[in-house]
Amino acid sequence: MLAGAAGGAVAIGLMEAFAASAAFPLFAVPFATSIVLVMGSPDAAPAQPRALVGGHLVSTLVGFAVLTVAGPGPWAAALAVGLAIVAMQVTDTFHPPAGIDPLLVVANNLSWTFLLVPVGAGAVLLAAFAFVWHLTVRRYDWPHRWW
How far apart are CA 127 and CA 112, in angstroms? Predict the structure, then answer.
């Protein structure tokens, strides 16, 4: 339990440092709850790499699709989150923390670069961090399923 908590604290600290150095405060937003899930409940299906990486990518893509069709706005953001939930379930990438991604995209009228950095890179880095942390510090076999 303490190793998971320590891993969560270290991962949050690293994400915050990256966000500050990039002068991009939204960098850490999609990953704060992902870190809690992956470090605190590593056995859960949404904490596995397929869900972690795929959920963030799928949800962000849905956000951009809705933004392209409907433009920014509160109802478009709500629609994007609802559609992202469906898309994650259909693609077997359900990761609840990724629900913030389409909201951020639509509400902030973000550019497509958000898909690559921070979302894609951040999700992959978090999966890599979790793998190394669980293996070396916790001595725990994670993930149960890569893809």
Answer: 22
Q: Give domain limits for the chain.
A: 2-136
CA atoms of 78 and 93, how far apart (whole Å): 20
Q: Is 120 helix (H, G, I), strand (E, B) or coil?
A: helix
pTM: 0.91
Q: What does the pLDDT look like over 51-106, one tens digit per residue?
A: 999 999 999 999 999 999 999 999 999 999 999 999 999 999 999 999 999 999 99
Nearest-angstrom CA–CA distance, 132 and 124: 12
Are 54 and 136 within 8 A, CB to CB?
Answer: no
Q: Residue 109's closest CA among 48, 55, 79, 68? A: 68
Which of 50, 51, 48, 73 is closest to 63 using CA atoms?
A: 73
